[in-house]
What we know:
Helix content: 25-40%
CATH superfamily of the largest domain: TPP-binding domain
Distance between the termini: 21 Å
Strand content: 15-25%
Largest sheet: 6 strands, parallel
CATH class of the largest domain: Alpha Beta
Structural class: alpha/beta
Radius of gyration: 18 Å
CATH topology of the largest domain: Rossmann fold
Strand order of the largest sheet: 5-4-1-9-10-11
CATH architecture of the largest domain: 3-Layer(aba) Sandwich
Amino acid sequence: MKKRIVVLTGAGISAESGLKTFRGAGGLWEGHAVTDVATPEAFARNPELVLRFYNQRRAQLREVEPNEGHRALKRLEEKYEVHIITQNVDDLHERAGSSNILHLHGMLRQARSVKNEHLIVEVEGDIQLGDLAEDGGQLRPHIVWFGEPVPNIVPAARLASRADLFIIIGTSLLVYPAAGLLDYVPLHVPVYVVDPNSPDVFSGHQITMIAENASLGVPMLVDK
């Protein structure tokens, strides 16, 4: 039986493909405060702005490609059972060919009805005000906004608890509940962290730090 490797990825791995990280200087995202574009209240207050913002993010996603970090994780499947838990809303892991991907915060290329969070559709182009789901509800980005529950945290915690090896890539481990996943990893399980900034990790685990960007550090780890 193959060993099970569970990987938690954050914005750092996507940033190397050219995607903007969630928060830039001053806590702004593309010039917008998070409270203006990434909360249910923002969508209720100004749906046109929120839809336009995510339309721009979706258009940007079409211009980028997976990097060596994404591709190295795909190669890892040749020898191991690999499960990726990602905080990212892009589809770069999918496009790199990885098989088992759990998105904690939704996906840019999906939309859902405001009436039913389980009515999800694929979307490539823009979402406009007046675009309706089958149930007549306005379509909104299938993104977990601040203040909303994270449904996939339960299966993510289950995966973490069953890992034979746990890898953390490109995340500051500051955003909960994702940051708490390490608490579910058994203490005897080796943990690798790939991030140039070496986030503070307070745990009793055996942790190996690789202070490199994902496109360099992940292939180093996978191919060694």
